[in-house]
Amino acid sequence: MSALLKKTQGERLRLIGTRNRAMAIDDARNLLLERLGLIQRIGAPRLHHLRGHPLIEWTITDAGMAALSEIRAATRRN
Questions:
Q1: CB of 37 within 8 A of CB of 61?
Q2: Are 56 and 64 within 8 A, CB to CB?
Q3: What is the pLDDT of residue 13?
Q4: Do 42 and 60 contact (CB within 8 A), yes or no?
């Protein structure tokens, strides 16, 4: 296998690893926000039209909007 091909495959694997970690972080954050009642799922997961992995749509709850308003107000004061 050529050095260029090995380098290209290595870069692709690193990108996939980075994307998988980012997706895992997003999933963990969303599950925590859901358990806190700040967001909720909209419908059932649907498959991504190109990649085939499931996508979940979320919406912010009233409690989430209230928390966001409090954070924005506190940020403006500081």
A1: yes
A2: no
A3: 84
A4: no
What's the N-to-C CA distance of the chain in angstroms? 58
Q: Which residue has the higher pLDDT, 47 or 52?
A: 47
State the average pLDDT over residues 12-23. Answer: 85
CA 63-69-77 angle, to 5 degrees, is 145
Q: In the block, which residue shows the tokens 């991504």? A: 48
Name the residue among 37, 36, 43 with its Cα closest to residue 58: 43
- The percent of residues in the chain predicted with pLDDT above 90, rounded, is 44
Alpha helices in the chain (DSSP H): 3-35, 62-77
What's the rounded Cα separation, in Å, for the pair 64 and 78? Answer: 21
Strands 54-60 and 39-47: antiparallel
